[in-house]
Design goal:
The chain is an alpha+beta fold and about 160 residues long. The chain folds into 2 domains: about 40 residues, no CATH class; about 120 residues, 60s Ribosomal Protein L30, Chain: A (2-Layer Sandwich), CATH 3.30.1330.40. It contains 3 helices and 8 strands; from the N terminus they run ββαβββαβαββ. Helix 2 runs parallel beside helix 3. It is globular, with a radius of gyration of 17 Å.
Length: about 160
Amino acid sequence: MCPQYSSTPILQLDLPGQTVYCRLLCRMTRRSVKGEKMNREAIRTDAAPKAIGPYEQAIRINGFVFTAGQIPIDPKSGNLVEGGIAAQTRQVLENLKAVLEAGGSSMDRVVKATVFLKDMADFAAMNEVYAEYLGNSKPARSTVAVAELPRGALIEIDLIAVV
């Protein structure tokens, strides 16, 4: 049970150097509990591609950063990175790293990842690069094969991290 709200179930996350208690029903909904305010903040950085639609690069709310999906666009050129799944995965994770840092978090604080692959045959190569960035934190992850991704990308990833 939650130390503050004794009737609320919790999930205990052991991160390097600390333990974080997530009030699942309190912190991840739009409702406030016992007067707790929901502080929602848009996260933007020039170190990652700008949003290409009506959404933000990430949202920070009540101790979490929820990123939008990132595809392998070089933020300096605005072009899709070439070179196959390994190069595209690396660019996606660099973009996400920049967004998390702008939101006050980091790759070692990621608790959930969702990976969208154009071709599941790319899974092993993607996983090798993914492990370089998230292998120590080992967040929960879903990987889904999709028919198409924006701009012909081979991969898209979104993350949830603790601040």
